[in-house]
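User: My instructor asked us to take a sequence, write out its structure as tokens, and then describe one feature of it. I'm not sure where to start. Here is the sequence I was given:
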Amino acid sequence: MKITVIGAGAMGSLFGAILAESGEDVRLYDIWEEHVKAINEKGLDIELNGKTRSVSVNATSDKRQIGKTDLAIIFVKSTQTVDAARIASELVGNSGFVLTLQNGMGNADIIDEVIDPGRIIAGTTSYGATMLGPGSIRHAGTGPTVIGMWTGIQKTGIAKITDVFNKAGIVTETVDDVRSVIWGKLLVNVGINAITALTGIKNGRILDLAATKALSCAAVEEALEVARAQGVKVSDNTVEHVFQVAEATRNNRSSMGQDVDNKRQTEISAINGAIVKEAQKLGVTVPVNQTLTALVETLQAHYE
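Assistant: Let's start with the prediction itself. The structure tokens for your sequence are:
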């Protein structure tokens, strides 16, 4: 299968490398020239548990060099989804599929505007990765990947993609109601990302102080109220699940935390900001999420 990963950041590079190692025809597409050059010259270095391996994978910043693609995986930040969707549309033509494994809410809706919804696959992954430098990443965690057709109508193509992922060792399952799955991942991000970004702490430190833990709980409970108002199926033990994820990734820095550390624009509008937006439509008040969103937006607007 010919696969193009649009957005070769830490996560995109990791997935692309794993799929390339399993024998798939993979292209990494990214506008970061230094990263692309490093990968093509010496391979992608992946650090895992103190050991580093180098994976040979093709990378480019010129979409014209890619050609027709069976599957385009979008891994860009949510703020770049519009551009990524347009590129994906050119690459997959009328027969390929587009998969988004991005953080936050609204990415599939944006992709839906330029690509036939019947060829859009959405999902979440529990994999974690950190960018160390050009051509170098750290594989920070492994977990299940869950995907489903955005329309809810399953097709034979998604079964083939699931098989390709599982063959590569990316444990993947297919579900009918992928929107609930995306909400589940969103709720975890709501409880962890903004708090870690604002405070400079790693994920597990949220659990160390009662005040921080209560703040995370309040943000998640507000988001749960919005989800239920929309008719989304959510678990009664979601808050506890968020804490379990924080503990399991105790030594990791959230993706939003990494963005703030590197003075990059964050995905706050697609995470806590998305809760605020949906709450306004429903007439629900979410003061904690509104405050967290405003603080992160203020912080990133005043990077030096």
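For the description part of your assignment, you could build on this observation: Residues 178-199 form the longest helix (22 residues). Try explaining in your own words what that tells you about the chain.
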